[in-house]
Design goal:
Order of helices and strands: HEEEHEHH
Shape: globular
Number of strands: 4
CATH class: Alpha Beta
Number of helices: 4
Structural class: alpha+beta
Strand content: 5-15%
CATH architecture: 2-Layer Sandwich
Distance between the termini: 13 Å
Largest sheet: 2 strands, antiparallel
Number of domains: 1
Helix content: 25-40%
Length: about 90
């Protein structure tokens, strides 16, 4: 979860990078209740003056992304919405 918090803005509602709207809501979704409880606990420990707006819900509707979005980071490593390589190495 530390990595997740570094690559998203936990206080920004309905936005990821330059993409804005409800379908860009940041969230943690799982079929495992223990994972959801761990995510909620992690978020609760990190809330400060600003409310964390990450959605934490059971996974109910999983849809694979279209081919245009498959392996996007590998195909477009310098795209505007990417994970900095320094962060990837930090958490390996």
């Amino acid at each position: 979860m530390n990595f997740f918090f570094e690559i998203i803005d936990p206080y920004s509602l309905n936005q990821q990078g330059n993409d804005v709207g409800p379908k860009y809501r940041t969230g943690v979704y799982s079929v495992n209740e223990k994972h959801l409880e761990a995510a909620r606990a992690f978020i609760a420990q990190r809330e400060d003056a600003h409310k964390v707006v990450i959605e934490v819900l059971p996974l109910t509707n999983y849809v694979t992304s279209d081919l245009q979005h498959q392996d996007r980071l590998a195909r477009f490593p310098n795209d505007y919405c990417h994970i900095p390589k320094a962060l990837l190495h930090k958490y390996r």
